[in-house]
């Protein structure tokens, strides 16, 4: 997931690929920003 975020792929596209919700992706993204 993080590699795709870094590559600039949209949240919705990542969510579809991993069969998960956008909320989960946003949580990962928020976790990245805190590091």
UniProtKB/TrEMBL annotation:
Q: Give the Gene Ontology MF terms in alphabetical order.
A: DNA binding; DNA strand exchange activity
Q: Which Pfam families match?
A: HTH_7
Domain Resolvase HTH, residue spans? 2-31
Which InterPro entries would you find in this protein's record? Resolvase_HTH_dom
Record-given protein name: Helix-turn-helix domain-containing protein
Q: What is the protein's species of origin?
A: Escherichia coli
Supply the source organism's classification: Bacteria, Pseudomonadati, Pseudomonadota, Gammaproteobacteria, Enterobacterales
């Amino acid at each position: 997931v993080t590699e795709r975020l870094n590559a600039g792929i949209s949240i919705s596209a990542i969510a579809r690929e991993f069969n998960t919700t956008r909320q989960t992706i946003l949580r990962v993204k928020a976790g990245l920003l805190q590091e």
